[in-house]
């Protein structure tokens, strides 16, 4: 059998006004705008750069060898991925340093 909370009946609970929502809610975005811009920039680079490298190198450098041009495109994609990881790591490192300074400031 279900237990009731409080002394109100169902009809009384429905008839009573809804509780007010807190006014101090945080409406800021979950992810900062600069992070989204970086992600979109690297996404475009991951699409455009390898394809461009493939078509630029297939005839100009490798004389029609699609194998070497494909390898060049794969290396380009991996370089962009590595740069993205490095940028994200540096950003996280800066955020951790800022948090540490705030903790030290509050501790004094």
Which descriptors apply to this entry?
70% helix; elongated; mainly alpha; 108 residues; endoplasmic reticulum; 3 helices; transmembrane; Vma21
Protein architecture, described:
Keywords: Cytoplasmic vesicle, Endoplasmic reticulum, Membrane, Transmembrane, Transmembrane helix. InterPro entries: Vma21. Belongs to the VMA21 family. It is a single chain. The protein has helices at residues 10-15, 33-60, 66-107. The chain has one domain (31-107). It is 70% helix and 0% strand. It is mainly α. The two termini are 55 Å apart.
Summarize this entry quickly:
The chain has 3 helices and no strands. With 108 residues, the chain is mainly α. The protein has one domain (31-107).
Q: What overall form do the CA principal axes indicate?
A: elongated
Give the helix/strand class: mainly alpha
Mean pLDDT: 86
Give me the Rg, rounded.
Answer: 28 Å
* DSSP helical segment count: 3
Describe the largest sheet: none
**Count of discrete structural domains:** 1
Low-confidence stretches: none
Q: How far is it from the N-terminal to the C-terminal residue, by CA?
A: 55 Å
Order of helices and strands: HHH
Main location: endoplasmic reticulum
Subcellular location: Endoplasmic reticulum membrane; Endoplasmic reticulum-Golgi intermediate compartment membrane; Cytoplasmic vesicle, COPII-coated vesicle membrane
Biased composition (Polar residues): 1-10
Keywords: Cytoplasmic vesicle, Endoplasmic reticulum, Membrane, Transmembrane, Transmembrane helix
């Amino acid at each position: 059998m279900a237990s009731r909370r409080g002394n109100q009946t169902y009809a009384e609970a429905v008839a009573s006004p809804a509780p007010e929502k807190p006014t101090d809610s945080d409406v800021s975005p979950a992810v900062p705008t600069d992070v989204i811009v970086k992600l979109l920039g690297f996404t475009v680079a991951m699409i455009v750069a390898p394809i461009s490298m493939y078509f630029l190198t297939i005839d100009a450098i490798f004389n029609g060898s699609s194998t070497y041009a494909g390898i060049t495109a794969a290396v380009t994609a991996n370089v962009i991925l590595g740069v993205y990881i490095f940028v994200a790591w540096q950003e996280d490192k800066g955020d951790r340093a800022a948090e540490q300074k705030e903790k030290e400031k509050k501790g004094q």
